[in-house]
Design goal:
It is a single chain. With 266 residues, the protein is of the alpha/beta class. It has a single domain, classed as 3-Layer(aba) Sandwich (Rossmann fold), CATH 3.40.50.150. Strands 3-2-1-4-5-7-6 form a 7-stranded mixed β-sheet.
C-alpha cells in the first residue's frame, strides 16, 4: 500500500473528531493503565485518549514514519504517549493493555475474522476492544468516481484505488466476537459533514477521498498536482454542490465495543 501524501490529504475535520469522541466515551473504564491505539496516524486519536484518561499510558502504533514523525511533533502528553512503528503482523509484540483502540484503520485491512480475535489476546481480563470503521457502502460518490482514476494515463495499477475492504454486516462481527467476550455492543452512525468548497475534493472529510487513489501518481516526479486537476474535472459531476458551493457528505460508520474477553477463547 502506497503511503498517503500528507501534503495533499485533507485536514482532519470536526466529523472525525466527533466519531473519535463517540468511541472514546463508550470505552467505559475510568482508569485504564494502558491503551494501544492502532493506526494512530497524525496522533489526534492518541491525544484525545490522553486528554480523556490523564493517568493512562498510550502506545500509538502506525506503519508510516512520516505520519508518526508528525504525531511526535504534535505532542506526547508529557511522555505518556509512546509512538511505535509496527506492521499488523508485529502487533502481537505489543504486550498487555486495558484497551485496544482503533478509529478508521480496519476498513483498509482484510482478515477481520483472524485479526480481531488475535487482538483480544492483548487485553487484560477487564479489557475493552473499541473499533470504528467508515462503512464504504456501494454507491457512495468516491466509489462511483474510482473508475475515472483507472482511465487516466497516469494510473499505475495500484491496488489501493477504490480498495477499501468491504465491511461485513453487523451479524458477522457478532459471530466473530460474541463467543470471545462477555459483552458486545455494535452500532452504526451516519454523520453529515457540511463543506464549502470550490471543487469536489477540497475539504473532503478525512478518510473519504483516500480510497480513490490520489497517491497513484507519486511515481511521477511532476505528477500529483497536475493529476489532481485532471481528476477533479473528471469527477466534478459526482461531488455535487449547491448554488452556494456547499457539499454535504454522508459519512456512515460502524462502531464495535467488545468487553471482558473470555479466557478459554483467547
Amino acid at each position: 500500500m502506497i503511503a498517503w501524501d500528507l501534503a495533499v490529504a485533507p485536514s482532519v475535520d470536526v466529523t472525525r473528531k466527533r466519531s473519535l469522541q463517540d468511541l472514546i466515551e463508550r470505552i467505559g473504564l475510568e482508569h485504564p493503565a494502558r491503551i494501544i491505539d492502532l493506526g494512530c496516524g497524525s496522533g489526534l486519536s492518541s491525544r484525545m485518549l490522553a486528554k480523556r484518561f490523564p493517568e493512562t499510558r498510550i502506545t500509538a502504533v502506525d506503519i508510516n514514519p512520516e505520519t508518526l514523525e508528525r504525531a511526535r511533533r504534535e505532542g506526547d502528553a508529557d511522555g505518556r504517549i509512546t509512538f511505535v512503528d509496527l506492521r499488523p503482523d508485529e502487533w502481537d509484540t505489543l504486550g498487555r493493555a486495558d484497551v485496544v483502540f482503533s478509529c478508521g484503520l480496519f476498513q483498509k485491512l482484510p482478515g477481520h475474522e483472524r485479526i480481531f480475535p488475535s487482538l483480544l489476546k492483548l487485553l487484560s481480563p477487564w479489557g475493552v476492544f473499541a473499533v470504528m470503521m467508515p462503512r464504504n457502502v456501494e454507491g457512495q460518490p468516491y466509489e462511483r468516481a474510482a473508475p475515472a482514476v483507472r482511465g487516466l494515463p497516469w494510473f499505475d495499477g495500484t491496488e489501493h484505488v477504490g480498495a477499501s475492504v468491504a465491511l461485513a454486516p453487523a451479524i458477522r462481527y457478532s459471530r466473530i466476537l460474541t463467543p470471545r467476550v462477555h459483552k458486545l455492543d455494535i452500532w452504526e452512525t451516519v454523520y453529515h459533514a457540511v463543506v464549502k468548497s470550490q471543487h469536489p475534493l477540497e475539504g473532503a472529510p478525512n478518510g473519504q477521498s483516500e480510497p480513490i487513489g490520489l497517491e497513484a501518481p507519486r511515481t511521477r516526479s511532476d505528477g500529483i498536482y497536475d493529476f489532481l486537476d485532471e481528476y477533479i474535472e473528471q469527477v466534478r459531476g459526482v461531488y455535487q454542490s449547491d448554488e452556494n458551493g456547499i457539499i454535504v457528505y454522508p459519512l456512515r460508520h460502524i462502531f464495535i465495543v467488545a468487553r471482558n474477553p473470555v479466557t478459554q477463547h483467547i
